[in-house]
Amino acid sequence: MNFDKFFELAASKGINQSQLQISRSKSLSISLFRREIENFTVNDSQKIIAAGVVNGKYGSSATEKLDKDTFEFLTKNIVLSASLNEKEQEADIFKGSDKYHKKNVYNPALAEVPTEKKLALIKEIEEKIYAADSRVAEVEVGYSERESASEFYNSFGLKLKQKANYFYVSAAVVMRQGTETKNFFDIVLDKDLSALNIDEMVRKVVEGAAKKFGADSIQSKKYPTVIDREVMASLIGYFLSSAIADDVQRHTSMLEGKLGQKIASSRLTIEERPLEKNVFFSYFDGEGVACKNKVVVKNGVLQTYFYNRETAKKDGVESTGNGTWGGGKVGTGFGNVFVKPGKKSFEEMIAPIKDGVYITDVAGLGTGMNSVSGDFSCQAEGFHIVDGKVAEPLTLITLSGNLLKMLNDLKEFASDAKMTLEAISVASAYIKSMNIGGK
Amino acid sequence: MISKSLALKVLNAALATGGDYAEIYVEEITPESYMLENGKVESAGSPQAYGCGLRILNGFRSVYGYTSDLSAKSLLALAEKLSASYDEPRKITVEKMVSPRVKQNIKITDHVRDVPVEEKIGYLKELYGVTAAVDPRIVRVQTGLSSTIKNIEIFNAEGPVANHFTNVEERTRVFIIAMAAGAEGIETSFYGPGASAGWSYFTKELDYKAIAKEAGEKAVMMLGAKECPSGRYTVVIKNGWGGVLFHEACGHPLEASATSKGLSVFSDSIGKPIASPCVSAWDDGTIPNEWGSDNIDSEGVPTQKNELIRDGVCVGFMIDRFNGRRLDKAPNGTARRQSYKYCPTSRMSNTYIAAGKDDPEQIIKDTPLGIYVANFGGGSVDPTTGEFNFSASEAYIIRDGKICEPVKGCTLIGTGQEVLMQIDRVGNDLLLGQGNCGAASGSVPVNVGQPTIRLKEITVGGRGGKLE
Fold it and tell me: What is the pTM of this model?
C-alpha cells in the first residue's frame, strides 16, 4: 500500500499530524497428542493502527481489513474519536529521535528449516517422554514459531522498520501413580533451534511431575520461603506494572512518591534493556521514540518510572521510550527486563533454611493480585525445605503477602536466572518470611 | 463477505487430500468502545477485525489456518497449504450449498450502535457521578462501554452438500472500576454487567445507578477490611457471580477438549456421582439475550440447553465436533472461539448450578462460624488435576449465623471433585453473572450462575491467621 496517500487524506480531513503502525504476523504451530499431529495452524495476518491529532486532541483507529477503503475508514474514525476526547493535555505526534539503535535480530535460517524437521523434533521429545517413565500417562508436545514485522510511519517523514522471529517448544506430561495424577510443563524459547536440549527438557518434565507424587498440605504459618524463578518473574511483572507513570499520576500506584527512595531490599536491582540483542529486542516504541536501556531499581532504590510522551510531559521529563498505541489511546509497556542474580547456586542459597517452603508454581495470581495495593493471595505448590534440602512435595497450599513487603524481605537471589516468555529474566529468590496457608 | 462460488472452490481445494470435514469461518467485527477516567472521555475506539479461518479435519487430526486477506488467491493458497498435511485420496467432493435456517435466540430491536454517541457517553458520565459521590476517599473511577457487532459466515461440508450459515452476534457491556484510597492502602471494586441486548436493557431493565453506587461503597468498605483468616472453614457463597466456582472447578473439566483425551478428572464420569445429590447443573446457550448466548456456535451447530449434572450424577459434557469424534458423540452447540484467529473448541456459554430448595437467609443462620463470599475476582483451574483457586473480592466472617466484618485477601482452593461433594446446602435464588472466559480458543463471553450455596469445609487462604 502507498502510505503517503494516507497522510494526504489525513491532512485533507484536518488531521494535521498523524502516524501509522503496520504489523504483519506469520505463525506456525504444531502439536502432537498420542503420537499424532493433533493441531497444525498457520497464520498470515496484518493490522494497521493509526493515530492523529485533530484540534489538539488525539484520535485513533485500527483495522485488519486492507482494501481500497482502509484509509477512508481510518481517517474517519480518527476524526470521530478525537472529537470525543476530553483529555486536557495538548496532543502531538512525535517527529522522531535523533538516533536509533537498530540491530538485526531476525534469524532467516529458522524460517527455512523444513516443517518436517520441526515435526520430527517434537516427535522425538514425545517418544522420549513416553520412554522415560512407566507412569507417564499422557504427553502433549508442541512447536510454535512466530515472525513479526512492524513498520512505523508518521506525517513528518519518519520511517522505521523491524523484524523478529523466534520459536518455542512446549512439553506437558501427565503422570499417574495409583489414584494420584500429577502434571508438569516446560517451555524453551529461542530463535535458534540448536538451543533446544531435548534430553534436558525430557528429564525436566518427567522428574518435575514424578517429584510431586505423595504431595500433601502443610501446617499454616509463616515460613522462610524460596520462590522459583518462573513464579518470581510473574511477581516482578506485577511490581513493574506499578512503575507505569500513568498509574502513579492517577494516585493508584503503590510506587507513588517513592522515586529516589528505598522501596526494597538492597539485593534488588532491575534493569529494562530493550536494546539487548535477543528475541525481545526493540529499538523504537509505539510513538516512534528510540528505546533505551535503563536501571529501574538500583540496590533497592527506585530510579525511574516508565513513561510515554504524554505522561513524561506531565512530570516534566523525557519519555523513556515505553509508549504503546492500543485500545484507542497511548499506553505504556515494558519488556526485556533483567533482575540482577546472586552468586550462590540454588542449593547453596537454601542450605541455611531449617524449616521452609519452596514455591515452584502458583495459580490464580491474575485474580489473586491486587495490583494497586500489592496484596496477593494465590494457590501454590512446591516442596517443604528441611535442614537446608528440598524435602517432601506440597500441594493445595496458599501463598499470600504484599509485593513491596516481600521485596523488602528479600534475602537474596540465587544465580539461576532464566529469561521467560514474559520477557523477564530473574533468578529464584529467598524471602525471609511469607504466609503459607495449608492445614 | 466471500461469495458462495469462492467458498465452494476453497472447500473442494481443502478436501483434495482426504480431509473428511472442511469449514470456512469468515468474520467482520466492528466494535465501539468508550473509556472514561473520572468522568472524562480518554479514548473512543472502533478497531475493526476482519479475516477468515479455515479448518480441515481428517479423523482425529485437525489443521487450521487464518488470514486477514480474503482474496480468492489468498484463500486458495491457504487451502493448498493446509491440505498438504494430508496425503490420502479425496473422500468428498462438494457439489452444492444449502442455507439452513438459524433459530434466533437473540432478538434486538434497539441496537446500541444506533444510539447517539452523546447519549452513551452521558450514561457513562452519570455512572461516574453516582460512584464518585459515594465517598471522598474514591480517588479514581473508570467507566466504560464496549459494544460489539460480529458478522459471521460459516461454510462447512462433511459430504457433497455444504452448509452456509450467516449469523450476527451483538453484545454490549458496561463497566465501572472504583478505586478508594485511605491510610490502609488502595482498594478496587469492579462491576461489569453485559448482555446480548439492546440499549433499553442498560437504561431501563438494569438498575445501573444502584450498581454504580454499590461499586463505590464496596471499594470504600474494603479499605477497612481485615486480612482474611486461613485454614479449613465452612464457606457460604452468594448467588450470581459466585457461580464462577462451578465454572472453574467443574465446568472446564466437563469440556470435551479435556474429557475426550483423558485429561480431565471427569473423563470417565458419565453416569457416575461426581457431586453431592443436591447439585444439578446446566450449560444453556439458548437463554434469550443473555451475555453467553448465541444462535449457533462457531461450527454452525444450533446452541442447546445441555444438562451436565443431575442430582449429583454426571450426565453430559460440552462437546465440539472435533473432540466429539474421540467420544463418539455428536456436537452439542458448544464450539466457540474468540475470533477467526482461533480454532474453535468446546467451551461454556451460560453455565449454572440449578436452584435448590433452601432459603438463602436460613443457610447463613444455620452457619455458626465461617466465611461468606459475596463476590469473586475470578479464578482458574487445572483440568487434569482438578485443582482450582478463586480469589474473593468481597468476603465477610459469619459468626453465630450472622454476616459480620468484611475481610480482604481471601482465596479459596481445592479440587473440583472435592468441592462438588462438599456442597451441603443449595438456595432457591439462582442468579447469573457476566464474565469473559479465557482458554484455548481465546476469550469468550460467558455467564456463570448459581443460587446461594454452602460448602461444608474448604481451604481458605489469607494472611489473617486462624479464624476465631
Answer: 0.89
